[in-house]
Amino acid sequence: MNINNKNEQSVLLWNSSCSVHYFKGEVVSEFQKAENEKLVLKFSEKLKSAFRKNNDNLQVNKELNTQFKQNIASLMANVFQFSENELAIINDNGFSSASKKFVAMARKFDSNITNEEIFQASRNLWIVNSLQVLLNKPVDVSDSLFAYSMLYPYTDNYIDSPDIDESEKHAFSKRFRLRLKGVILDPANPHEEQVFKLVELIESEWNRNEYPLVYESLLAIHDAQTRSIKLMSNCETPSKSELLDICIEKGGTSVLADGYLLNGTLTPEQEEFCFNFGVLLQFVDDIQDLQEDIADKLETIFTCAAKEGELSSYINRTIAFTHSVMNNASLFDDEIHEHFKSLVLKSVKVLIAESVGLNSKSLECHYVEEVEKQSGLSFNFIQKYRNKMSGNRVSIMRKLTPLINREIGVA
Questions:
Q1: What gap in Å lies between CA 115 and CA 410, rounded to an integer?
Q2: pLDDT at 210 over 90
Q3: What is the DSSP letter of 20?
Q4: Quick one: how far is CA 356 from the chain centroid?
Q5: How many helices (H) and strands (E) does the chain have?
Q6: Cα distances (angstroms) measured from residue 194 to each of 59, 150, 211, 309
Q7: Average pLDDT over residues 259-288
Q8: Using CA of residue 403, residue 404, residue 405, residue 408, what is the dihedral sign?
Q9: What backbone phi and psi angles, to 5 degrees, belong to 81?
Q10: pLDDT surpassing 70 at residue 329
Q11: Three-state helix/strand/coil letters over 35-103
Q12: What's the domain count of the chain?
């Protein structure tokens, strides 16, 4: 598994992606924006009110769930302009059932796990479920996919904790890598015991001798994160090329591991798609987290672009990169895949448009105005709505996450 080669190919694809204006779509009238904003507020308040009742009646809860699905579908169709075929990818393929199963598995594995940790882990599950649709596999949660989705909240939160000594973090990272390589170790503490149990779940499904690339992919994401931590902890600010390498390697190896844990083996075309799909998701995530990263003084290619007045070209390039990845995927060879492709492209533009509205001070006025014309919501509304949120997450779609979590049993 040549990760360096994959990095280089993704860098080439990024550098060749068009940086001119890439928001091309229908203009949404001010009247329609106002109507959409009423829908968002009405939906949010209705769901919060309904779930505050904490009703124990199974029939009532079933009716609430049905109402929820109908309302969220209406919201996504009317406000964000998703088509019936695009929404059917999620609604008709068992995403909700897989999420519920994942929550039950998480609580059984660790009775002390928090709702935030479950949500953190379930974000990877949704990526896995998307890959299952692409590979014509049933949408479900295997033990190994559950374990991988859980591993990185466990390891990331441990590494990021200010209450844990740096030497202990380095020792854990080294021992974790040995365990991923197949070395049997006695856990040094209760946290390490949980992490090693998750590795055992993967081993119970994928024989190391028969499926060596499964474990190579796990080592690849671990090494990518380790290199990222080392580089970001240096006194000198990383160069743009180094920041791009960090972003690409972390994102690409993350979803590459998903692919191998889902299928055991991948064709070169599938491997390339998984890697680049992970990269585009990392780009979008970094754009959404721009304000948070700037506040935390965390350097990414997008925080650097914002400082240098180049953010709009980097956003355009991200959208162009997304189009290249989705259009070049040889996996898309039937109608369902075409709908999934359009779902991804539309989702990326919706999420990035929100980020443009929230980072308007870092962008040219004419660029912000052009993107807002095509947004289903006014940027003034997005900014006000964000101010009502707890924490620093930026997306209105993320604002609705607590309500969505209720439906799948997280909160």
A1: 6
A2: yes
A3: S
A4: 18
A5: 20, 0
A6: 37, 10, 23, 45
A7: 91
A8: positive
A9: 65, 35
A10: no
A11: HHHHHHHHHHHHHHHHHHCCCCCHHHHHHHHHHHHHHHHHHHHHCCCCCHHHHHHHHCCCHHHHHHHHH
A12: 1
- Residue 362 is classified by DSSP as G
Whole-structure pTM value? 0.85
Name the amino acid, one letter, at 231: L
Number of other CB atoms surrounding residue 377 within 10 Å: 24
Angle at 125 between CA 411 and CA 99, to 5 degrees: 40
327: containing domain: 3-408
Structure tokens at 267: 């064709």
CATH code (residue 70): 1.10.600.10
Taking alpha carbons only, the member of 110, 383, 190 closest to residue 118 is 110
* H-helix segments, 135-186: 143-160, 166-180
Token pair of 210, please?
A: 């028969």
Contact in structure between 374 and 29 (CB atoms under 8 Å): no
Express the helix, strand and coil content of the chain in percent, nearest 5 each: 75, 0, 25
Question: Which of the pair, 242 or 404, is modelled with greater confidence?
Answer: 242
d(CA 124, CA 135): 17
Please tell me what DSSP assigns to residue 360.
G
Long-range contacts of 366-370, Cβ-Cβ distance < 8 Å, separation of 24 or more? 367/21, 367/312, 370/21, 370/23
Alpha-carbon distance 398 to 390, whole Å? 11
What does the block give as tokens for 54? Answer: 């904490």
Per-residue model confidence as pLDDT tens digits over 172-183: 889 999 999 999
SS3 (DSSP) at 266: coil
Amino acid at 408: I
Interacting residues of 101 by C-beta distance below 8 A, sequence separation 6+: 140, 141
- The label of the residue with tokens 């709908």 reads 339
